[in-house]
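Our consortium's second objective concerns turning raw sequence data into structural hypotheses that experimental partners can test. To show how far this objective has progressed, the report includes one record in full. It was chosen at random from the queue rather than selected for favorable results. The single chain below, 596 residues long, was entered without modification.
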Amino acid sequence: IKQAGVRNGASLFVTLLAGLTALLYRLTSQDDVVIAVPVAGQSQFDGGGLVGHCVNFLPMRTLVDGEADFSELLSTVKGTVLDAYEHQSYTYGTLVQKLQVVRDPARLPLTEIQFNLEQVGGAATFAGLQCSIDPNPKAAVNFDLFVNVIESADGLTIDCDYNTDLYDESTVARWLGHYETLLQGVARNPQTSVGRLPLLTSTERDLLVRQWNDTHVAFPSEPATIHGLFEAQVRRVPGKTAVIFGDQQLTYAELDARATRLALRLRELGVKPGARVGIFIERSLDIIVGLLGVLKCGGAYVPMDPTYPPDRVRFILDDCEAAVVVTGGDLAKKWSFGSAQVLDIAADRRPIEVETVTPLTSLLTAADTAYVIYTSGSTGKPKGVEVRHHSVVNLLRSMQATPGLTDADTLAAITTLSFDIAGLELFLPLHAGATLAIVSRENAQLGANLLAELRRVGATVMQATPISWQLLIEAGWTGTPALKVLCGGEAFPRDVANALAERSVSVWNMYGPTETTIWSATARVTAGTESVPLGAPIANTQFHVLDARLELVPIGVPGELHIGGDGLAAGYFKRPELTAERFIANPLPDALSPRL
């Protein structure tokens, strides 16, 4: 480290100070770093007879450019140090007064970080004694962090005092480890840019990149499609109730027959494998019939909510080039769907049901598109996310294991079809051989009605946003001992989580963007005071927190979450530029997922 500094015209003190400056920049993502350096203050007093430890602090302010080489930072810090020592008799207190900074009695002004290099010569020698030199223990210090580096014949020892109201020992020890790793990187190559100096040892990196992301689960390769999972249950439990809506219900065999007949009609209308088919249906049994019918005929469904404005519906249909729209009843009469053919599932139901059911040969593979779902378009026009069967199948198999669903469960589905999380509600029960209870729009929006519906169908699992769960609580729900609560789609408030934990058998926080197929992480939540965590990645999913340069950040350091694995969507429909911008090649050479 000393030699690296000398080669760049800097002393060991300047090199270590610059290293600490670089570390703080990397830990905080703040490019304006101020560190106080102590200097002897006896010279500030006139007259003789002064005895004591008199210290003045020089605040060293550095504006850090993360793209600049560390050697450039060394030069900057060297200039700052030389300038500061020219004015070392100007006291810290005077400076604070002159700057007229707004004072907070709980904090030191200007900076709360101190750095010092302490040089210890050879071991003290006394006849007949072996001696070693150690720093004096302190009961208290003024600064929140005081990094003191001790140079001796044995090398450098890093000693740190820290505010225990702010930091714990493991955090500070981890930071000092990053400091050591960074300095070793400086010693190897001072021309490395500040933003790319190493912070992690190989062991730490392996923990973050591979060990914590070792989520591999070897699921069966078949069935490889969403409807294939459903058809496997049809063969296993054909007479069991598959779906209920109000006082209507269908067994697995009846649902399969209806969906197959719809698929045949869609093929008659010219729906080819890969073609997009709009689903524009009020909540009813027809929703699940429509989805399975589209998938069985080889199409990719495009869900739309009947509450959408007409302009949005037309935009989606035009953008996805929908071949057919499956709708029904009043919707088919009142709405215009442009050039798309219209299949009125309600009007066609009787002739469809009298046809002989001909088994369909599956035309799809795991790599084919299952659905194209349009986001809200809050930053512009809505964009379609194209999701493959493989990604949905991986999600369903993972969710069946954790949080868990068995064929004894009844899942109450309350989410509008245009919200991607509805896919879990509709397909997971049919994959597990459970019962799907579709709740009407009216009952889903009123807490008292929803509570009555849950009791009527005997729901054991429900997924909803925190707002919907709050509606239930406000409606007087005191608890359902057998109910498993899945909560996602928004930040999960702690008070809501605690209330749910008191009222159910288990509570699960669900997290994931549309682009990674509904959910990417789960966490079982118990009562507490801390914020609700996102949880660990689901099966065959990887999480990496990276900085603006796509460098892996250490534990506890802010960054941007990048998600990889089997859940990644194919991309944005007909928007290759946006797909290339958002779905990137994994910059971590030792990572498990090629895309993020």
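The partners drew two points from this record. The longest helix spans residues 169-188. The CA atoms of residues 312 and 378 lie 13 Å apart. Both points have been shared with the crystallography group to help prioritize constructs.
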